[in-house]
Amino acid sequence: MKNILLFAYTNTNLGDDLFIYILCNRYPQHKFYLVSYGDYKDKLVDIPNLEIIDMSSQFDRKLNRLLRKYNQKERAYYYKRKNEMDLSIYIGGSIFVENNEWMEFSEIFKTRKINNKPYFVLGANFGPFSNIQFLNTYKVIFKNVDDICFRDSYSYNLFKGIKNVRKASDIIFQYKSDNLKNVSINDQKIVSISVIQPSFREHLKDMDTLYYDKIIEVAKYYVKMGYKIELISFCENEGDFNAAHIIYKNLQEILNDDINNVNIFNYNGNNMIHILSILFNSEIIYATRLHSMILGWLFGKKVLPLIYSDKMLNIITDCKFEGDYLDIRHMDTSSNVIRQLGNKNKLQNINYYKCDSANHFKYLDIILNNDYN
């Protein structure tokens, strides 16, 4: 058994927690230690080979700020655990984003490598960014990472001259849905809508009202057509749950008794299977969250992507998706969100992307002596 130090986005985000689940489930004979800066003490409790190194307390946060003044990145307890590890993995999607703290993060990122032990970065995309210094900084840093596997061609092409940089389809394509097939299917047809709070993102700060109005249009239309609507919050801490409540409250005033056909489901860190089962039992998915789009494809659903960032568009391009989509960054009041979705809105050649996504673990399988199928 190997001890593996794991870094991820610990903000109770369904997509990122699903990364962690897939990784730990692939290597059940090894122990993972997740460094958490969010409150994860009672999250992901169904993963038996995962232990949380909790760094979320007020004491830890204050101490870390103090240590950073002396160029120490983490507290002594963390370093002690770090030295017990055989390798480290950073798994996640939008890890490398240019913001006001990117230089500090780039220094912390380098400390994730444990001496001369292997260091893997899996599942990421690069950007958005505008500063060439940001790109060049990571071109240097990535040379000291043992294996980096991006999830899109755009990111890969920025670094393809570095020999340890690779590309594979998104890790979520590796999710095995077998344990969802026994979930009872309601006779009523379902449309699932993954919602966001646009203003959580600077480039969408003025889009809340328009976005909510368009989601309300969708819900009204499908309720009238006899569907049940499931408003799904992937990440409460990023405003999804709040957005769902605002949309629901407005629908109450419009639908009256038909509001009984609308539900809200919020991911809380321990109800992953329940949320995935809702998506699995849906006929149609309006996907604002990237991983609601990929899960919809994986489950063979008709998906209308509602694009809020280039990372979604890049994956749509890589996957040769032939269906309709709507870029909400360019949406206005005249934009049509009611689309007649057919088989083109199902991802074709899904088995290729399922197989290709396993390549994220190509070299990790070797180190962990894994015969996975």
UniProtKB/TrEMBL annotation:
PANTHER family in the record: COLANIC ACID BIOSYNTHESIS PROTEIN WCAK
Entries under Pfam families matching the protein: PS_pyruv_trans
Domain named Polysaccharide pyruvyl transferase: residues: 13-309
Family matches, as InterPro entries: Polysacch_pyruvyl_Trfase (IPR007345)
Keyword Protease carried by entry: no
Signal sequence range: none
Keyword Signal on entry: no
GO-annotated molecular function: transferase activity
Protein name as catalogued: Polysaccharide pyruvyl transferase family protein
UniProt KW keywords: Transferase
